[in-house]
Amino acid sequence: MKDFLKIAAVVLALGLAARGAWGVLTGALSGGMFAPADYTETVQTGGELEAAYLAAGPHQTEQLTVPAPREEWGSFTAWYPADLPQSDAQYPVVVMVNGTGVYASKYPAVFEHLASWGFIVVGNEDPSTCTGASADALLAWLLNENATPDSLLYGRVDTANIGLCGHSQGGVGVFNAVNEQPRGGLYRCAVSLSPTDRDLAEALNMPYDPAGTSIPVLLLAADSSDVIELDGMQRIFDALPGPKAMARRTGANHGQMLYTADGYVTAWLLWHLQGDEAAARAFTGAAPELASNPLYQDVRLAC
């Protein structure tokens, strides 16, 4: 088994695309981007709530980009509601954690979508995010902007409502940002999309342990061509101590999970960071929509 994992690790390290049809599929379909600009209009949905939260939110969006403190992280960018400068409101935050080599500038549509729902969404150009270090630095930058009087973001960050979302290696980085980084205690909820299987991640020298993640976690993956299979997802789900939900999207592959499940990702973040009770019904109540959505399988809910 260990020899197999070493071989699998080499294959993954040489090219994650070979397992998930990742760069070929999304890159070809979206002009080099990893999330199509029109995905909110083209992704199929299987429930009313999923469709409602996949659609664009009520805000127009803008962005702010600055150099990152470390060269390998490229730049830090915040997408935010366009009415933020004229508003006295504070906005909840979503920290995005990149997949392997999938820079924030390669999936701006995801940031824009979340920002349209009233979030400040921050990302960077780090190609290797598994430790959560660049996510922690990104959050530190945002908190500093919130405390700097001449910053556009001064006083606009709702520091009590910060979440994070990561895909692939970034799905690993989500757990390490929460459990291993200095500001991990500031997060209120998380989403891990197609995180690398724990055994494979160990072989790739990017270990993680979800057991200490007591905040609510949404765990989603594809039903095929993914870097984590059902049994690996179940082990993560069982290890999580706090409120949690899990499902696999049918007919999707690894790369598509960056954006395909965004209706429920947005609903999860709105529920936990903005108190949206309608969004909560996707996961809770007598008939949670996710459990009956024909586009999802292997659903487990403990919210």
UniProtKB/TrEMBL annotation:
Start and end residues of each PET hydrolase/cutinase-like domain: 42-200
Highest taxon of the lineage: Bacteria
Pfam families for this protein: PETase
UniProt name for this protein: PET hydrolase/cutinase-like domain-containing protein
Gene source species: Candidatus Faecalibacterium faecipullorum
Lineage: Bacteria, Bacillati, Bacillota, Clostridia, Eubacteriales
